[in-house]
Structures are given as C-alpha cells and as structure tokens.
Design goal:
The chain is an alpha/beta fold. The protein has eight helices and twelve strands.
C-alpha cells in the first residue's frame, strides 16, 4: 500500500503535465491565444535618473508679487476667476508646499487638451505633486466651452485649427471626421468643415493669467515655461511663437500646428523646445501622413527644422542623439539640432505609446520635462 504523500506527489505531477500540454497545444480555429508574458529584464529602466544634473546659471528675476502674502492657499490647488475681454474665465493655481513669498519661484503652464479640463490635466499628469516635490508654481489654464449634442466641448485657439484653408490648402481631407464648430466663430470660419476649434482670444487670456500671477506671486520671470497635451500641445506651440518673450522653454506633447502653419520664435527670443510624441500616435500624426480623423498636421521634422533655422535659434542642420534622464523608459529616445547660436536647445523625443501623456501620472514624464526646463532660463538681469 502506497503512502499518502507519494500518491499526492504523483497526482500533482500528472496535473502539471496535463496543464503543460494544454498550454503548448495549438489554438482551436477561431480562437485567440493570449500574448506571452513579458520576459523579466533586470536592467530595464523604469524611472528617471536624478534631476538637475545641469541647471541654468541665469540670475533669478523677481516679479512684482515678491514679498506679498498669496491670496490662495500654499500647498493646495485653488480656482481663480479672471475677466478677459469682458468675459469671465478661470484657471487652477497650485502653489507648492515649499513656496517662499520672498524667493522668486519658477512657473509652469500645464495646458489641457480638446474636450478636457484644467482639473483633468492636473489629475491626469500628477504635476501638482511633482511641483510640491521640486518647488515650482503650476497654473492649469481652462479653455472656453460650448455644448454640442449634449456634450461639453472645450478647445484652444492656436490660430490654425480654425483657419482652413491655409497656406498649404485645406487642413483636412475630404473624408475627415466632422467636429462641432464652436458658436463663437463667425460664418467665414464655419463655412469650412475642416475648422474645429474656438475663435476666442486665448493669447490675451494667457497674457492676463501670467500678468496676474506675476503681480500676486513671487515668480522668477526668467523661468516661466509651458507644456500641454494634444490641442493643449498645439496651443503650447503657438505660445512659443507668439509669446516667446515670456517663456524660457516649452514642451508640447502630442500636438503640432495644422499643416502649412508651422511657426518658430525670432532669433531675438532665445526659447528652447522639447517636443514629445508617441510612436503609435496616429490620431495626431506628425510624420507627414494623414491622421486617422483625416486632419493634416506639421511634421516633427518640419517643426524642429524651423526652430533650428537661422531665422529662429540658429542651430546645426545635423540631427544627433540627445541624452536625457529618462532614456529607455518605455522606449524613450531623443534627438537634437545642437550648437544653437541663441543658446537654446531644439529637441524632439519619441516613446512607445499612442496619444498619451508620457508616463501618465507616473512621474517620469514630468521628470523629463522639468529637467529640461531646469536647463533653460531667460538671461535677463533683474
């Protein structure tokens, strides 16, 4: 008579063999096998290297608000109302927990995408937590909105998404997705079905938001930056062109201007560019192809080439690798036009993703952007 323990071992061995054979058997017709589990890679990079290994030595330039007690809570996010062109608007303001009203503090605009909100941008990027850790002010601008088929639609006026046909013709194909045109646009805009974004004066809004922040808070005027996602990234491009005197660097994510409308700041305004895009993103295609919704956007090569030109930052035509603290995370790799005469940097990065914020709410995307910002400042004496 066999003992219980050997019997149990034999039964377990038989069960294992049967499971192994089933796993290795071919799939039945019409079924789909699950993807293989990823192979463990002990050297795969999952978080960014330490930040701030290279930091601009430009002097701090205090704003008029230095020395004043802030009107909103420190270490918290507050909703602020502002009147621009007789229109009441809002923005979210996050003052970092380590804020000192007597110390000039960097400021970052973080701009949401199409149909999103300022609150959605804050929660989706985790940037307020990041700002608390690295001590910078974050402002989340809020786009205007209108209702269409019961849905609330928000968008930014980058001066191109409502300007079809443009210098290169229509900004969309004949079979494009038809988006609702905001009610604030006139008949000259609405007659072209390619046009899809608001016609409100968002540049004046951003100017007013920055003016107010700089008057009420201790902002380092040499270290003001902007980043944004999708339509917010498109608008960030516009800020880098039209308000370059206010920004030391910009970091648009997953959004360039409509084809035919690419722009860059003048050589008199040193402004650095970090452009980030997902390799699988065909919703906003920036490789020269038509996007899945039928729209045409400026390619990354055209964007960076124009910024690198002698009319803008005066960089080398040659494209070379650009090392970052996040290289290898989710396949991230970056290139640059180096040796810019203005002292700026013109960089583009790709990572393994679709239409998404780098890292989601994981900190490495914010680390990448903030580390780039730390390298760049306006060099204007206080």
């Amino acid at each position: 008579m066999m003992k219980p323990a050997p019997v149990l071992r034999i039964l377990l061995l038989l069960a294992f063999c049967l499971l192994t054979m089933a796993a290795c058997a071919p799939a039945a017709p019409g079924t789909r096998m699950p993807p293989p589990a990823p192979t463990a890679d002990p050297v795969r990079k999952t978080k960014a290297d330490p930040l701030g290994q290279t930091v601009s030595d430009a002097p701090a330039r205090p704003s008029a608000g230095c020395g004043q007690k802030p009107e909103t809570f420190i270490g918290a996010t507050s909703t602020v109302k502002i009147n621009v062109n007789r229109k009441e608007r809002i923005y979210l303001l996050h003052i970092p927990s380590g804020y000192d009203p007597n110390a000039p503090t960097p400021l970052v605009l973080s701009i949401h995408g199409y149909t999103d909100t300022a609150g959605g941008m804050e929660s989706g990027t985790g940037m307020s937590r990041h700002a608390d850790k690295y001590n910078y002010i974050v402002i989340y601008p809020q786009a205007t909105n209108f209702k269409s088929d019961g849905k609330l639609i928000t968008s930014w006026n980058d001066l191109t998404c409502n300007a079809s046909p443009g210098p290169a013709g229509p900004i969309c194909a004949a079979n494009h997705t038809q988006y609702a045109v905001p009610s604030d646009c006139g008949p000259e805009v609405t007659k072209d079905s390619c046009n899809w974004c608001t016609c409100n004066d968002d540049l004046s809004y951003i100017n007013a938001v920055l003016d107010e922040a700089e008057a009420n808070l201790c902002v380092d005027l040499n270290r003001v930056y902007a980043t944004g996602m999708s339509n917010g990234g498109m608008f960030t491009n516009r800020l880098g062109c039209s308000l370059a005197e206010r920004f030391a660097a910009i970091a648009p994510v997953a959004g360039t201007l409509a084809k035919g409308f690419s722009c860059a700041p003048d050589s008199s305004d040193p402004t650095s560019l970090l452009y980030i895009h997902g390799r699988e993103d065909d919703y906003v295609d920036v490789t020269g192809k038509t996007s899945t919704d039928g729209y045409f956007y400026t390619s990354v090569d055209e964007l960076t080439g124009l910024w690198a030109s002698d009319q803008s930052q005066g960089c080398s035509d040659e494209v070379t690798p650009y090392p970052t603290i996040a290289d290898g995370i989710s396949g991230l790799s970056c290139t640059q036009h180096k040796n810019c005469k203005t002292g700026a940097e013109v960089v583009s990065c790709w990572w393994d993703a679709g239409h998404a914020w780098p890292g989601g709410s994981s900190p490495w995307g914010n680390d990448l952007i903030w580390d780039f910002f730390l390298k760049h400042a306006k060099n204007i004496q206080p």
